[in-house]
Please model this.
Amino acid sequence: MTEPENPRRTPPYAWVPTLYFAEGVPFFAVSLIAGILYKRLGLGNDVIALYTKLLLLPWSLKPLWSPLLEMFKTKKYFVVLLQFVGGISLGLIALCLPLPGYFLYTIGLFAVVAFCSSTHDIAADGLYIASLRSKEQAAYAGWQSGFYSVARLFSQGGLIVLAGYLEARMDVPHAWMVIFASMGLILVALSVYHGRVLPSGGAARHSGSLRQIAATFRDVLVSFFRKPNIYWLLLFILLYRAGEGQVVTIGPLFLVDKRSVGGLGLSMDQFGTIYGTFGTLAFLAGTVLGGYFTSWLGLRRALLPLICAMNFPNLAYVYLSAALPTNPVLVASAMSVEMFGYGFGFVGVMLLMMQEIAPGNYQTAHYAFANSLMNLGLMIPGAVSGKIQMAIGYRKFFVWVLISSVPALILSRFIPIGRRATQAAPDSEAQPARV
Model:
C-alpha cells in the first residue's frame, strides 16, 4: 500500500467516525426505513417487499462500476459528492410524500440514494485504505464498525421513535417528511464537513487507460471463477441467508401491521425501541460472540452451529404470530433472541468469504464479488417474500422461513472448507461486510 500523501493531515479520529456514520445512514434509510414508511402509508406487503428489495440491487452490482472510481478525480471527491447528492435525494423524498403520485417519485429517489450509498461504500473504504498506514487501519477498524452501528441505532431506533412521536401529533406523510428531511440535512452537512477535513485518498489512485482497466477487470473475473470449489461455495453463500432474507423484509412489517390482519400492532415508538434499539444491541452482541465462537472452534466445525443460530431463533416469529402477545417486554425478549441469533450466525458467511474465497491475488475484488452474491441471496428471497406472506398469512409464512433454511443446513455438511489454493500475495485487506 502506498504511504499516505501528507503527514500533516487531519487526524483520523476527526473523520473516520463521521465517514462511517455517513455510510450507514442512507443504507438503513433504503434497507429498513423505506419499508416502514410505505407500510405506514398503506401499501401492501407484496409491493413493499418487491420494490424495497430491488432497491438493494446496487450493492450487488457495485463491483461493475467500481473501477471507474479509480479513473477520475480523487476518492475524497466521490465521497463528498455522493454524500451531497444522497442528502439532496433524501430531502426530495420528504417533499414528495404529500403528493398524489408519491410512490413513483419516492421509489425513483430511493434508487438514486441506493446508487449513491453503494458507490459511497467503495469510495469510503478506498479512502480509508489509501489514507491510513497499516497500524492506523488496524487501530481504527473498531471505529469503522462502531460508528456504522451508531448509524444503525440512530436510524432504526432514534428516527423510528421520533416518527412515532410525530405521528401522534400530525398526519403520517408530514411526520415522515420530518424524518427524511432530517436525514437529508445530516448527509448534506456531513458532505460539507468532509469537504474540509477528509484526506484526498489520492495516494491509492491508479493511472491507466480504459483498455487497461478492462483487461484487469477481465483477469479479476476469470481468476475468481478458477478458484477451487468456487461454484459450491457460491451456491452455499447464495442459500445461506434464504430464510433470513425473507424475515428481515417481512418481520418489521409484521411487527407494525394491524392485529386484525395477523400483525402485532406495535406503534412506531414501540417498534423503534424494541426492534431498532434492543434488537440492534442484541445483533451487535451476537456478531461479537459469534466471532469469538468461530475463532475458538474453527470455521469448519462452527459452520453448522452458526447456520442453526441464524435460523432457529426465527421460532420467535412463529411464536409471536401465533400468540400475538401484547406484553412489550415479552415481545422485546423474543425479538432480542432472534436478532442475537441473526448476528451470531451472520459471522459464518462473512468469514467464509474472507477465508475461503478472498485469499489470493485480487483479494479485495474477489471479496467484493462474493459479498455482492451474498447480497443477492438476501435480495431475491426478500423480493418474493411479500407475495408468499400475503398468500399464506403471517403464521404459516414464518414456518415457511424455517423450511427455507434447510438447503443451507444440508449443504453445510458437504462444502469444502480449508482446502483453498495456496494464497498469493493479496492486493489489499478485505473489508468486513456490513449489514
